[in-house]
UniProtKB/TrEMBL annotation, chain A:
SUPFAM superfamilies: vWA-like. Keywords: Membrane, Transmembrane, Transmembrane helix. Gene3D superfamilies: von Willebrand factor, type A domain. This is VWA domain-containing protein. The chain crosses the membrane at residues 86-107. Pfam families: VWA, vWF_A, YfbK_C. Residues 330-508 form the VWFA domain. CDD domains: vWA_subgroup (cd01465).
Automatic annotation (TrEMBL), chain B:
Residues 31-97 form the RNA polymerase sigma-70 region domain. Residues 1-21 are annotated as: Disordered. The lineage of its organism: Bacteria, Pseudomonadati, Pseudomonadota, Gammaproteobacteria, Cellvibrionales. InterPro entries: RNA_pol_sigma-70-like (IPR039425), RNA_pol_sigma-70_dom (IPR014284), RNA_pol_sigma70_r2 (IPR007627), RNA_pol_sigma70_r4_t2 (IPR013249), RNA_pol_sigma_r2 (IPR013325), RNA_pol_sigma_r3/r4-like (IPR013324), WH-like_DNA-bd_sf (IPR036388). It comes from Parahaliea maris. Keywords: DNA-binding, Sigma factor, Transcription, Transcription regulation. This is RNA polymerase sigma factor. Pfam families: Sigma70_r2 (PF04542), Sigma70_r4_2 (PF08281). The keyword Transcription regulation applies. GO terms for biological process: DNA-templated transcription initiation.
Amino acid sequence: MNDDELKQLFARQDTAHDDSARDKALKAAMAAFDEAQAEGKAEQEKTYSATQGSATMSRLIPDHQPVGRKAMNTITADSPVKRWTFSALASAAVLVLGVFITLQMPWQAGMEPAGQTPPYRETRDDALPSSPKVALEERAVQAEQELGSVASESHIVVLDADASASAQAASAAPPPQVARTERKLQAAPAAAAARVEADGFAVPALAARIDPMPPRGYQETGRDRFEAVEANPVKRVSEAPVSTFSIDVDTAAYSFVRRQLNQGVLPQKAAVRVEEMINYFPYDYPAPHSSDQPFDTHVTLMDAPWKPGNKLVHIGIQGYEIQGEQPRSNLVFLLDVSGSMNSPDKLPLVKQSMGLLLSRLQPEDTVSIVVYAGAAGTVLEPTPAKEKQKILDALNRLQAGGSTAGAAGIQLAYQLAESQLVKDGVNRIILATDGDFNVGINNREELKGFVERKRESGVFLSVLGFGQGNYHDALMQTLAQNGNGVAAYIDTLGEAQKVLVHEATSALFPIAKDVKIQVEFNPATVSEYRLLGYETRLLKEEDFNNDAVDAGDIGAGHSVTAIYEITPVGSDSGVFAPSRYRATEADSSKSGEYGFLKLRYKLPDEDESRLITQPIEVNARQSEGLVREARFATAVAGFAELLRGGKYSGDWTWADALGLAQANRGDDPYGYRAELVQLIRKAEVAKAM
Amino acid sequence: MAETFTDKRTGSQQETIKRAQRGDREAFSRLLEDHYALMYRFAFKYCGQRADAEDVTQQACVKLARVLPQFRFQSAFSTWLYRLVINCALDWHRKQTATGDPELADSAVEGNAEPAVMLRQVLTRVQAMGEGYCETLVLVHGEGLTHAEAAAVLELKESTVSWRLHEIRKRLQREQQPGVEV
């Protein structure tokens, strides 16, 4: 379809408007105009500096109001009898709701061992109403009052009506509860409501007041927070020949995507990070032999399956696997036991995961446990791993409840880790949370500053994400990226097994830190390139040689893969039109290279970086194994691209991704790759729905 | 192509806008009457459907009433108005996809169905290419704006507009001929 046809298509449309629709729209707009003017005047009388109008959009209002609305509008109800009936009904409804919530509340929300009050409760108790139940009742009263004041002029009438209505409605609830609640209601303590206000619970929405502390096993939905990033654009080699980024061994994105797909929905685009999907899988790259140069780089070239003419450059990095004895480790488990963790896929899974990790520790390694909810506290002083039962007991006592003072927890954990610092060993905090910090520092920038200062001390940080519905990915990424850490997302016990048992060495023992990659493309052979993923990890060109700039870390045995899509000179598969004026000077002496790969890293206890270089040769000899691994990585990258909307994957389809992944599964001892094949099928189904 | 938004009576139009901004009811009403047809036409080309276009236009009119004071005469009124309609259309589209309305299912087609259906098919495909493509297509091919004018409306670089159009053309072409291996 060419331009003229497109124009014709538009021109052939009957775009004459309907007069009645026009009149309706004009009327609505005039009404909005009058309203805006009235508001504007009122606003201007108050203050001259305020801007007029507002950018929020009004809802469409039908010509005839629905009947139900009129029925509910008790002020305009024509007879007093009606008015009372309506308000009584509304109040009864609130009361019943209140009773239900009260009954479902866990009586105590803490993790204290029997007969002992942990320190954090003391610090918060004075600020809170004496028990969660009372707080709820107060809130119910307040909600009631609100409804009441809207619905009728007289409180007493409403409350009386209440009593009889609820007596009938509450047959399902134990009588003492109802009686208590009723007494509260009849007292109508305005003072109590005022105290609730003063305590900082004043939230405009009625629903928020009724549900300030979630009942047991609650599940939020639709509040997962991800930072949206634009996919890396295609770049001209003639304009930006150098590409620099930090490596990223996180795997969180893949597990989150898997979880969503297993539920039959496509993940939100921002949740899909290509590099984390690729790096989720272990790749069978030849391993280096000594810890002096802790990793080898492998470059593989192949044709881009989604765009004929383009090529893919795979850069595979294989980390050194620890031989012999494990270094001693000092681990601090920092566990979130706030109310939001109260869900089967959160705290119970955290406990199981930590139990798994214990099995991989040596007898002399120390473990301590710090928890945080409304405040932070130490639950287990540093204990050697050989006292396994003691650690497990401490874990099993934990219960979830209360708000989330995440920052205080992090501070305490760093303190504890530093106090036990093991020279020549591994000092690591393992944070398990859903990322919802709401007490103390909850500003991401501030937290970032804090962990940035702390990483100097030699303590590493691993972030394990749990749960969904209220998962704050952005915060976890910030912590992991700036605190010398990795982020993983644990959705099932199987994933915990992968991260904490099979890959425990990579999760625990860093072999290199601040690993940066820089590729300079040869303008004589490459015209355009695009880096797949790593959007959140891009570095400035000059940062590559600056050792003060932080970058990603690699654990023992980790493999990392980065993929570039390049358009060789002379191929017409690029996205840029050829420049009419810019002459391309060909440097024939280097025409056998597509580019030059440079890699900088520091050994874990050093501050000066080392350099590895390797040319990317046009006709490099490639082993069969490497090609297979590269193909599989390509299948994952293509799948991720499709999940992100397919901007760069041309007309590649799910079936193509499936075929490519299927054909290059290799050994796959743990079945991770087979699982990807299933996921692609599920994505295809989810997409079709 | 039909007349562009650049009003020949720019002076008098400016006067009308200013009066409407100060709260002159009649001036605002005239402004609406002058521009309703254009807004509707644009909305129709974006949505490809009468009922939806009417909704979007009505929303845009209501929004105009609220945000007109924010117009600072830094660009042509038409440019600003296009942006407003696009924003309303985007909101509408977001809601549409959120509620999961099957797009072509309610084919309550009116008299001249065929071009409308064709248009809707093209729009759906362009929509699938990514964000921003549809607006670009409608502004340039539907409304006859130059690339520079469209770029001003979308607050983009001119080259981006050109590139998007190129991409749209290329991909539509590819999808048209399924027999050809690409």
